[in-house]
Design a protein that fits this description.
By secondary structure, this protein is mainly α. The chain is built from 16 helices and no strands. The two termini are 15 Å apart.
Amino acid sequence: MNLRDSIDQRPMSAYQWLVVGLCGLLNALDGYDVLSMAFTGSAVSQEFGLTGSELGVLLSAGLVGMAVGSLVIGPLADRYGRRPLLIVSLIINGVGMGLSSMVSSHWELAAYRVLTGIGVGGILACTAVIASEYANNKRRGIAISVFTAGYGVGATLGGLGAAQLIPMFGWRSVFLVGAICTVVVLGLVIALLPESVDYLATGRHPRSAQIAASVARKLGIDDAPALPTVTQSTQKQSPGGVLSTRYRSQSLLLWASWFVVMFGFYFANTWTPALLVESGMTQQQGILGGIMLTVGGTFGALLYGTLTSRWSEKAVLIVFVILQSAALVLFITTTSVPAVAFSAGVVVGMLVNGCIAGMYTLSPMTYEPALRATGVGWGIGVGRVGAILAPLTVGALLDRGWSPVLLYVAVAAVGLLASVAVSRLRVGQAARLSGK
């Protein structure tokens, strides 16, 4: 029996949950980063005298960087290892956050926001794969859900922290604290996070056997089973392999799913307060509606993971996507009854976050180890394009006279396309190793 099979057939150990928890902590940096710019936007605009369009550039700059980071660093992680590229990404992220606290113009801030985003994109591409590869078959869904839930924790703490820091120390302190947190997490990663067993199985690391033996001891596997055997052809595959004959259709389906799911996620999380006010609610009710989505999101990823312990990851995701579309329509059509709308908002938040957890779960299961970080990174990168286009598209449609109800119904209808794409994905054990 090889080490991969031993991990899959044994209960999750404390060390495996430690690795998953660290990945969740890393994902919290994404949540903190996104909310740090959102909460400092007003103060930044006041200091630099920004127009709405200029502030929009700042808000989008980080997302652009995340897309670039996922697309570029994912393939490098397949070639040089998840762990070293994760460390590099953390350094880039920390430098970007630190420099953001020392800018003298909004154009400098935009540049450093892109740099920070590149680091975050690389972090996400690496950690999603590591969390998946250190989970066993039975607990993979819940492990990825713990990782995904980190976003909500980071976003919440980032928002609360910004509310305290800005009045006392100014908006630059929010980015400085983010840089300090990144340095602390970098130390934890260097000290505690191992290289993934599935990457070691590709034979690209010069000390694969020694590191695998060390990991086996930490997992409590005394007989030190061998690494899985990977064919030579797999070891020589290039990043372009995600569009090879074997993977082309799967990659396109995965990218379409990521694009639609991320579009819906950022539509709901960025436009809900404004659209609720447009629908007749007060400003305070609009803000409360947005908070309801955040509250629901905290539990949505964990709910997805819990359900995957009983049903397949793909089936649960398809159900979440369909229910998400229905909940979006219910949410916007019940604004005249705030209690019902807010309850529906919690459900929307749960489902959109659950869909993100589902995408993070299925993506690593679609590819073999030698292409896994590339496939996940490109999926996340394409998804970030959807995230960038969501607020821009909605704004343009509002200018053309679209009503909030029509917008929500349109996004719900488009969201159903993701269920079709996901239903055609081939995921599972066959994707773990070449030739199996």
